[in-house]
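Cross-posting from the modeling subforum.

Setting up a comparison between two proteins and wanted a second pair of eyes on the formatting. Protein 1 (sequence, then structure tokens):
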Amino acid sequence: MTGFRDFEWFVAVDWSGAQGARHKAITMAIAHADGGPPVLVERKRGWARSEVLAVLRDKLPANSLVGLDLGIALPFADAGAYFPGWDRSPADARSLWRMIDAVCEGDDHLSASSFVDHPVASAYFRRHGGREGELFAPQGEAGGRGRFRITERAQEAVGCKPYSNFNLVGAAQVGKSSLTGMRVLHALDGSIPVWPVDPLPREGSVIVEIYTALAAMAAGRSASRSKVRFREELDIALINLGSAPIGGTGPMDDHSSDALMTAAWLRKVAGNIALWAPEGMNRRIAQTEGWTFGVP
């Protein structure tokens, strides 16, 4: 790959915010700049979130672009705060990560249950059992889809169907993944820049937020058909992304296909300068809400 900023490795992590120590839903794939098919980095019993953290902190290949399938922050711009009306509401993304981790210090496996059940913070979330906080919806609205970041509105504009990070209900929700992911980002303690909260470094590794549906759409699939569950379909998607196929036939889980396809997509698009300077993002949005890499 050539471009304004070259990476050697491309790592995609399909994340999970579920309870428990290990998760089959957490998958990691890696692709090399020189080509070839992306490869799964497997754990027989499934990945623990702490193991992914250890890889990012201590075992990541040099000069890697790492995509994490989670939201790196909560909505801020719509109300001028993550938690409008709460005097403890953090001022930026790193302060948000620190707050969540502090509240959840006693939660095992980098989970975030203590935060969503916090006596004040819970008012801003939609939780299971029909428990919708009185501050979940945007001001003046009742119920609905909840609050969104600027990048999520931009996702909608290109055909994606994002969920609010304040929504913790439903198979497609990303709220739990995002909150647990923020604990990981805090634990990294600045050892790897997280774009765009941090500027894109001239060299070395960097973490970005990804949305696997963007990779699927770039591979010729629609947002409603973004999940790939057969190896033959994955190979078609990989070829469309300019990657060598993985080969083989038969079913495969969509978490693995998401990671493999997105690693290949990162390799294809990382040199596109425009994706590092999206039109709707300014410095304030970058430091409070972040952005999804690949959204123009």
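Protein 2 (same layout):
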Amino acid sequence: MTDGGADYCFECIGLASLMKDAFSSSREGWGKTVILGVDMHGSSLNLNCPELLRGKTVVGSLFGGIKAKSDIPLMVKRYLDKELRLEEFISHELGFQDINKAFDLLLEGKSTRCIIWMDK
């Protein structure tokens, strides 16, 4: 289907077995596997060393790769200075009693981000 493997593979579940599968599915020579899921069982990740030597890579990304100590205060400042307009990403605001409607909007592809208000 990919004629040799995918250029980029993403693992988002947090299972070492799927991390290995994602790595095995990447293209030899330049395939990149990005690990996003967190393995809660503390399992080891066993990879085929010759595949690494032939150019496949594995990287991890916790919280999108930000450096929390320096990046979060910077993002907060940009938000407060109106440089970062997060409100534009909110498509709906609903009360908790309408939480099922929020899921329906998501499944219908009509919601980008929905805020659920607990006190509405």
